[in-house]
Design a protein that fits this description.
- By secondary structure, this protein is α/β, with parallel strands linked by helices.
- It has a single domain, classed as Rossmann fold.
- It is built from twelve helices and nine strands.
- The protein has a nine-stranded mixed sheet with strand order 1-2-3-5-4-6-7-8-9, with helices on both faces.
- Helix 2 links the parallel strand 4 (71-76) and strand 5.
- It is globular.
């Protein structure tokens, strides 16, 4: 019996590994079953798969603390962003924290399930709750970047008792077209129509190699949005970091990219900000042209005394662009607002 069980687990791992290589996970994790370890991340952490209530496969990494656990953190990446954007923070906090990095629906192995633009954000919030349930995590710091911050705020509105604190890094609280460097909310309808078309034309993925991945204009636009500049500077991603970031982004299907964007345009979380009662770290970038730093300042003002605002000179990916400064501010938030008294001297990496 034990031999047969072991054989089944190996078979499951082989199936998921093959699906991972084709970037299309099939629904092979049993609903309600305990999470299955299906792979190991580059950092050596187990990569797990969980079957969500609607049949979607949710992938996440689980980093256990090396020493005494003082905190649980759930990290959610931004629109089409790979979870490794948090790598330096995970390395710094590894001695004392357990870190779950959830891969959003449709991203990097997680399937879309039955989500649509009207349910996508709430579905991910429920996915996070189910992952926390499966891992027996009662409450955690929910930290999100960009779109991930919107998901963190929405998670708080639905499951406030599961939130110890919030981290909002370059995150909008409203239609992202309204929170960019220049208010572009007038383009919401044209953008909705464009992304509706992209969402329902999966054949576009087959031509993405020539139209997007190798398109230098697209790379230049993205580099400008991420770095806030086209020239080399001290607060920009290194070339290899940008190539890695861009390569991962292009592996997300057009259906997911379009659905996720449409989902963001339908959310307005500004009214709930005044009801946030947990410690909240709000991070803004002076050169962030995707989410204007003044919008982050607005979020902190609405939350009030529970918010700690850090305005840094970087762009949209400050956790990668300004590792030491970002980590120093994160540590200050954890020690001052959560009273953890973490003794970490090296956060430069």
């Amino acid at each position: 019996m034990a031999r047969k069980r072991k054989s089944n687990i190996i078979s499951l791992k082989d199936e998921i590994r093959k699906a991972w290589e084709s970037n299309a996970f099939r629904r092979i994790v049993h609903k309600g079953a305990i999470p299955q370890v299906v792979e190991t991340t580059r950092e050596g952490n187990p990569l797990k798969a969980l079957r969500a209530r609607d049949g979607a496969t949710i992938i996440y990494s689980d980093q256990k603390p090396l020493l005494e656990k003082k905190l649980n953190i759930v990290m959610v990446s931004g629109w089409a962003c790979y979870p490794s954007i948090w790598r330096e923070q995970a390395k710094m906090l590894r001695p004392y924290t357990r870190i779950i990095r959830v891969r959003k629906r449709g991203h990097f192995g997680s399937s879309l399930g039955k989500s649509n633009p009207y349910t996508y954000m709430r579905d991910i919030a429920t996915d996070i709750k189910e992952v926390m349930d499966a891992e027996k995590i009662d409450e955690a710091l929910i930290m999100g970047h960009s779109m991930g911050g919107m998901i963190a705020l929405n998670f708080y509105t639905v499951y406030p008792s599961r939130v110890l604190a919030l981290g909002l890094v370059s995150s909008p609280a409203v239609n992202p077209l309204r929170s960019t460097l220049i208010d572009a909310s007038a383009l919401t309808l044209p953008a909705e129509l464009l992304f509706f078309f992209l969402q329902h034309m999966p054949v576009l993925d087959s031509i993405k190699e020539s139209t997007v991945i190798r398109n230098n204009i697209m790379k230049t636009i993205l580099r400008f949005l991420v770095n806030g500049s086209l020239s080399d500077g001290e607060h920009e991603l290194l070339d290899y970091e940008f190539r890695y970031f861009y390569d991962k982004l292009t592996r997300v299907s057009m259906e997911t990219i379009a659905m996720a964007f449409r989902a963001m345009t339908k959310f307005d979380l500004r009214e709930m900000l005044q009801h946030v009662t947990v410690p909240t770290w709000v991070v803004a970038g002076l050169k962030d042209y995707a989410v204007n730093w003044r919008h982050s300042e607005y979020i902190a003002e609405k939350i009030g005394g529970n918010a700690m605002l850090s305005i840094l000179p970087g762009g949209h990916l400050q956790m990668m662009q300004m590792k030491a400064t970002f980590n120093s501010e994160l540590l200050r938030f954890l020690n001052e607002r959560l009273h953890l008294d973490l003794e970490i001297k090296d956060y430069t990496y």
